Amino acid sequence: MSFLTLLDYASVLVFAASGAMVASRAQLDIVGFAFIACLTAVGGGTVRDLLLDRHPVFWVADPMPIVLAALMAVLVFFTAHLVESRLRWVVWLDSFALAIAVPAGTGAAIELGHGPVIVVLMGMATGAFGGLMRDVVCNEVPLVLKQGEPYVSCAMIGAMSAITLVWMELPLNIALLVCAAVTWASRASALLWGWSLPVYKSRPPRQ
């Protein structure tokens, strides 16, 4: 099993857990849990593979990610009531999933020989789209679009660190591990210290 496949599996599990937590907040049934968990788990990777024209899409070639996401949904369905603050769990699970998904998307684009811009965009897409789909379907404000929330920007920083290290001729696996560390460190720091991005504020028209 390749390193990129392991990254895909790991991101599927963590994103599935965050999706199931959101499903518990929406008080869905067990089928709803499985649907939201699977959507969150494979959404970003599906967008990545479609944009990169990778056929078949990773979970069609190997259905195990869907199985793992569904099993995670069942586990959370029976244990979510034990968690004191499910929203906080969602936020932190998303930070770990982001740190795994970004190098997975970045590495896939690098292996296909794409340039820096596409590599960074694929890292961002893989990390962001699963959570975006989850929040839209569950009628929540998407985490990636909350005012000043440094989520996509953390993905961008992580992907840029990977492409920089590859340009410096470091091994790809090392570059992806650094990408994961940078992504999570920046996202965790933002959560712990309340960092935010500047938000546009409209000014009243001049008289």
From TrEMBL:
InterPro entries for this protein: Gly_transporter
Domain of life: Bacteria
The protein's name in its UniProt record: Putative membrane protein
Entry annotated with the keyword GTP-binding: no
Record-annotated membrane-spanning stretches: 6-23, 30-51, 63-83, 90-110, 116-137, 149-168, 174-197
Keywords: Cell membrane, Membrane, Transmembrane, Transmembrane helix
Ranges for domain Glycine transporter: 6-80, 92-165
Compartments where found: Cell membrane
One Pfam short name: Gly_transporter
Classification via PANTHER family: INNER MEMBRANE PROTEIN, UPF0126 INNER MEMBRANE PROTEIN YADS-RELATED
GO cellular component, one term: plasma membrane
Membrane topology: Multi-pass membrane protein
Family in the record: Belongs to the UPF0126 family.
